[in-house]
Amino acid sequence: MIRLALHGGAGDLALDRTDTREQRAALRDIAQQGRQLLQDGASAVEAVEHLVVLLEECPLFNAGIGAVLNRDGQPELDAAIMSGLDRACGAVAGVMRAKSPIRLARAVMERSPHVMFTGTGAETLNRELGLEEVTPDHFITEIRFHQLKEAHARGVIVLDHDDASFAAPDAAFGTVGAVVRDAEGHLAAATSTGGLTNKHPGRVGDTPVIGAGTFADDRSAAISCTGTGEAFIRSGFGFEVHARMTYCGWDLARACDDGLDEVRRLGGRGGCIAIDHEGQLALPFNSSAMFRAWMGADGNIHTAVGPQDAD
């Protein structure tokens, strides 16, 4: 029983004033490609990597091309991937030259003895392993440059998926992620992000922190988060969901909801996508919106942004 879910970020978006059709269409198309990949026999790790690569290449979201910019006008990209089969994982933070942060994260997992690389060390590894390299301007779009200028003027640091008055009406949204259950019953999760608009250079959020923004274990669930990274780190979100399921016997929905209650208590907003070992889905969020797509039990691809606008 194959299952998949994608997210493109969460935040307090004024849905009545925002046209999200382009983002939903992109999520649907990518999810359909993921469904076909799994039907053709791809493993969970192969599928989540491929899905997140496609999301990184889509300028509508805050990952890869179209990522938000730090205070100095530079993209600093983070990514992580984890296999539920054996908890193998890889993560990178603060990269500017790796064309695909998620491909580099998988290479860390499979082609190095380590779990996480940062900054220039990660970029050196990317080069040594023969992965594609670009200049930082490869990731920068006009919309993101405009957002940074306005954030500078207002002196704010902003979640890319919030309904900020300075954002262009067609501005890109959110951190991206994918979770998958493959035909063999194995789980995997992957997440990629540019972080926060106008963030202090060097800031790292929850995306590359294994057990916070990205987690997978075949005994429990695969989880990818989006939102206020600091709160997801402080709550240990991914591992806490796993613990509630394995130690307390809770189902996936209850474990995720309880985890988000803790994120809220710590002053955070956002959501997650999750698939458990039986193929059940949970897509909760405590903000007004979360861009998401998933394959339901009926085998069809569905998308939604608000609480009750699924198609």
UniProtKB/TrEMBL annotation:
Substrate binds at residues 203-206, 226-229. It holds the Pfam family Asparaginase_2. InterPro entries: Ntn_hydrolases_N, Peptidase_T2. The record marks 174-175 as: Cleavage. Transmembrane segments: none annotated. Keywords: Autocatalytic cleavage, Hydrolase, Protease. One of its GO terms (biological process) is proteolysis. GO terms for molecular function: hydrolase activity, acting on carbon-nitrogen (but not peptide) bonds, in linear amides; peptidase activity. It comes from the Bacteria. The active site is at residue 175. This is Isoaspartyl peptidase. It comes from Sinimarinibacterium flocculans.
